[in-house]
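QUALITY CONTROL LOG
STEP: pairwise intake check
CHECKER ROLE: data steward
CRITERIA: each record must contain a sequence immediately followed by its structure tokens, with no blank fields

ENTRY 1 OF 2
RESULT FIELD BELOW
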Amino acid sequence: MDDLAQDLADFIAVSPTPYHCVAEAVRRLVEAGFVEQAEAGAWVDGPGGRFLVRDGTLLAWFVPSDPADPTGPSRGMRIFAAHTDSPTLKVKPRPDVGSGGWRQVAVEVYGGALWNSWLDRDLGIAGRLVRYDGSTVPVNVARPLLRVPQLAIHLDRSVNQGLTLDAQHHLLPIWGLGTATEGDLIEFLAGEVDLDPGEVAAHDLVVHDLTPPARLGESRELLAAPRLDNLASVHTGIGALLAAARDTSDVIPVFVGFDHEEVGSASATGAAGPLLETVLTRLGGGFDARGAAFARSRCLSADVTHAAHPNYLERHDPGHRALPNSGPALKVNANQRYATDAPGAAAWYRACRDAGVPSQVFTGKNTVPCGSTVGPIIATRLGIRTVDVGIPVLSMHSARELCGVHDPGHMLAAATAFLTDPV
């Protein structure tokens, strides 16, 4: 458990953006012998591990060497779905602004971020610079560069009665003194990666908290880190796929990490797009055969869930509270904000039983609407039975979140059992 928690911390530290997350996952897949499937190239059939990358989205799968039916239609797929993005502050196309003698960076809120959690933190900046020919150059300034300063209490004596922030005016990071000049930020970032600023046509950049992941608690049983939502699940999914690839099951294990979940998934790289359907159709033997293949398939949608907050217990359903280190939680919602149904729940509980790990159940309080994730989108788009699960965390959507040290290990064991379950 300690080694896995440290590996998760290392994974998060090198993944400040979806693009960096995908790059680190690909590094691990290649190290294990997986080979890239070019999206625009000829489809490669046959046994072995493959992966496909589109921007901040990654798909990977493993075809067993001795399939029960080489033509594919009778082969069930076991899909692990997660997302690579996290709430943050995204840099605007024209980032160079300032006022009152300060140089600032224009940003907009990406996803449902807890705005106040970004105040008074040392921030880096990361993402990708795109040349005029369409090629991309990753960039990651992992040292203190930016800061969103809070107003001193002397200038707002009522702040502790309720902080009110205006996203247009109060969340702009400072990064120096002087007068803002158009092109300053991109020139600086291009210099960080030895790129001529004149080659940069566009960019995708976000800020990120620089405080490293850390163990805490009397017994060091908790892990504090940025982007646990949802890099904890991506880390688990890659580990489970690699473990499933060493299994002798005839099912095809698949991993998908989508971008843009935090903003609704409606994009070319999101769960509402066609990418997963295209890959699964090919894996299932083509369009005519995919109906039977999809009917034999199941999806585990993994996203973090709410841990019971000791200071706000009234916000939780008293019979369905989840706690860290008590196992991943099955997520259930009558209005299909989660895709779990009884047969899906049975498949999850079977996986937990086979793996020897505990499980919990999360259901939101009737008067406090819950969020959603990629599970209902996959179930709706593909008709594949899907079950939603996740490890419990506190401070979800904060710049820094908290989970139990043991839950990543519980989740990995259960996910591996799910990806290899032939039933």
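ENTRY 2 OF 2
RESULT FIELD BELOW
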Amino acid sequence: MNSNEKFYLIVGGTSGIGLATTKLLIESGHRVMIIGRSEDKLDNAIKYIDSPNLLVQSFDVCNTSEILPFVEHIVTNNGKLSGLIYAAGYEETLPLGRMKPDSVERIHKTNLFGAIEFTRVCAKKKHYNNGFSVVFLSSVMGQLGEPGKISYCSTKAALQGAAKAMAVELAPKGIRVNTVSPGVVETPMSQKLFEALDENAIARIKSKHPLGLGTPEDIANAIEFLISNKSRWITGSNLVIDGGYSIQ
């Protein structure tokens, strides 16, 4: 075993930014367990990365009451964690007048409640190694408003607030908590969004990013930095990676 090898848990690692981060960490010599709901996506991730250092587990983050035994099982069978990356996310575009409590609850369970519970459980001493670090995948939509994105914006803003509070509370245990906030990145989620828009709307979105749209690798590089000891004096921070979107 490589003495520098670490074991990371990525929740929502089967596509997009989560998968790119998984690939980057494995290429750096670490072991990674990715969590996803879709068995097909987990199988595709295995084929895409093709490494003995990749572990996968199927799990629905909305089942918050099952997260404790789930993490205990992972740690018992694979060793203590060096870091947690929460990249699970759900997005829905609905105007306020069409929103229903059920859809609001679903987005908050996926984007926010799961992140809080996974962190609470992973931050138990028996589950992590020294230098444990947490990164939440937030969004520039956590700082900016967008029509039809009330639930999404609110969860991403809440992640940033939760990270700051956790960072203060967990600092005595040597645990760091940070967020990254991407602009529009070329992922399956954004592709689904573009499919519902006309060409003019897509052009407007692209024009708001002075450096163009981002790639999953752009965000993965930042996550790798924040999850590592290279950022040992950074906690409670939100790193905006948006190609200039939010400075206009």
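INTAKE CHECK: passed for both entries
DESCRIPTIVE NOTE, ENTRY 2: Residues 12 and 88 are 4 Å apart (CA to CA).
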